[in-house]
Automatic annotation (TrEMBL):
Key word Repeat present: yes
Pfam families (alphabetical): Choline_bind_1, Choline_bind_3
Entry superkingdom: Bacteria
Source species: Ligilactobacillus saerimneri 30a
Keyword Ribonucleoprotein recorded: no
Region (Disordered): 51-143
Identification of the protein by name: N-acetylmuramoyl-L-alanine amidase
Biased composition (Polar residues): 51-85, 93-113, 120-134
InterPro entries: Cell_wall/Cho-bd_repeat
Keywords associated with the record: Repeat
């Protein structure tokens, strides 16, 4: 009986021995296949943890296997996807740089939509800074992709840190990695996922504080109260940057988005206070309470400039748009309306609505006698204002219509002095003997008043009609003297 039991146990041990050998050979084949499989294109770190290979999972760990091109269901409900990581609010301990923050705006570049500034200029060169463009100018390529996705990878949380494993080699990935859900993340030298601002190879990057996803575009950093810009590779940018057709300037030291006025390379620029876009065209600067003009390359304009068919004048020192009467370097006095546009022809200006005349070609203010398009001959004083009524000009008295300023000629009655005077074809008041239309008249030497009735001139008596002032000839009845007299021709 004992011998039968010993023989039976001996057969069982042999069977177990063969089974063990078979298991070892099988595991060897599987391991060999894993070592010859696809490798991730990143640095990996050996791990003493064999849980991935054996299939066992510690109680304080979660993992997820990711295979490129396969649609496998997740084996871990706590894998670090965007929504789940946000809900778990993991508190990661990451060594941050001196100016590091994990409190960032996650809205991305959508906050900064393209804005078309009003640009009334007549013709513009290509959008600047094409003129004297800084060397650091870069144009963002939106479709550029840099970081590849590992073929085989397992995400695992260990002791509060997320790692990415290669399950075939039991090693940790480091550096930039693209996860199956599309996130680009970064693992440090220990294989730990990083968050917030990180300085990597002399470039600043920003990673979401919950998901670790690499940020790009415009991002607001509350800790430093600044908006910065990360290109498509996630690197913080500096200097001139063109994004979606708009120019921005990022401070060379901090990368902060410039807003308001800034002098760059000897030229003044302005950047929108809301979105930071470089200003072009007419721009109002509320701090200085002035309107200025920026050319297509962003430079503030000074002096005279023709824009959209109108001439404008900008102060040589401040660039402020000038309005009203201005004396130009070439000696012209011109006038710019409230919009800053140079005016031409007849213009009614000022609270008194005074008429002025400006040259149709140069805009120069006219003075002196001028003949208008409707035929009126008028007079503009040295200050350019049209004159009315009696005016003494160049030693002569003239009379201008009180309504339209037209110069008067011929006999004119002056109500103020209750007299009739005579202005020749040049508009000048006349004195003494005047023959008009075949009739003789006599105008007082001092006042120019037309004489009526009897008057002794140079020792001779004359008579002038009481109604029209014409000199009498022939038989004439004098009612005041009640006599009839005779005047020679």
């Amino acid at each position: 009986m004992l011998n039968k039991r010993l023989k039976k146990r001996s057969k069982m041990y042999k069977a177990r021995g063969l089974w063990g050998v078979t298991c070892i050979l099988f595991l060897g084949i599987i391991t060999g296949l894993g070592l010859t499989g696809d490798r991730a294109h990143a640095e990996i770190i050996k791990s003493d943890n064999n849980d991935v290979l054996t299939g066992t999972v510690n109680n304080n760990e979660t993992e997820k296997t990711s295979f490129s091109g396969e649609n496998e269901a997740s084996t871990d409900s706590q894998s670090p996807t965007t929504n789940e990581m946000a809900s778990e609010k993991l508190e990661t301990e990451v060594n941050q740089p001196a100016n590091n923050t994990q409190d960032v705006n996650t809205t991305g570049s959508s906050t900064y939509e393209q804005v078309e500034p009003a640009n009334p200029q007549e013709s513009q060169p290509s959008l600047a800074p094409s003129i004297n463009s800084p060397k650091e100018t870069k144009v963002v390529k939106d479709d550029e992709v840099k970081y590849s996705q590992p073929t085989v990878a397992v995400e695992r949380q260990e002791n509060g840190y997320w790692y990415l494993y290669n399950p075939q080699t039991n090693t940790k990935y480091t550096g930039f990695q693209t996860l199956k859900d599309g996130r680009v993340v970064y693992y440090n030298g220990q294989g730990q996922m990083q968050y917030g601002e990180q300085n990597i190879d002399h470039h600043w990057y920003l990673f979401d504080q919950w998901t670790g996803a690499l940020k790009n575009g415009f991002q607001y950093i509350p800790k430093y109260q600044k908006t910065v810009y990360y290109n498509q590779d996630g690197q913080m940018q500096y200097g001139w940057q063109q994004v979606k057709g708009q120019w921005y300037y990022l401070e060379n030291g901090s990368g902060a988005l410039t807003r308001g006025q800034k002098k760059i390379a000897g030229h003044w620029y302005n950047f929108d206070r809301n979105n930071g876009q470089m200003s072009t065209g007419f721009t109002y600067l509320p701090d200085d309470k002035k309107t200025v003009y920026y050319a297509a390359n962003g430079w503030m304009v000074y002096g005279e400039k023709k824009i959209a068919g109108y001439w404008y004048l900008f102060d040589q020192g401040s660039g402020a748009l000038r309005t009203g009467f201005q004396k130009l370097p070439d000696g012209r006095t011109v006038y710019y309306n409230s919009q800053g546009q140079m005016q031409y022809g007849e213009q009614k200006i000022g609270s008194g609505w005074t008429w002025y005349l400006f040259d149709d070609g140069s805009g120069a203010m006219k003075t002196g006698f001028q003949t208008l398009a409707d035929g009126r001959k008028v007079y503009y004083a040295p200050n350019g204002q049209m004159q009315y009524g009696e005016q003494r000009i160049g030693g002569y008295w003239y009379l201008f219509d009180s309504a339209n300023g037209a110069m008067k000629t011929g006999f004119q009655y002056i109500p103020k002095y209750q007299k009739t005077v005579y202005y020749n074809a040049n508009g000048q008041m006349q004195y003494g003997w005047q023959q008009v239309s075949g009739h003789w008249y006599y105008l007082e030497n001092r006042s120019g008043a037309m004489v009526r009735g009897q008057k002794q001139i140079n020792g001779h008596w004359y008579n002038f009609d009481q109604n029209n002032g014409q000199m009498s000839t022939g038989f004439t009845y004098l009612p005041d003297d009640k006599k009839t007299v005779y005047y020679a021709a």
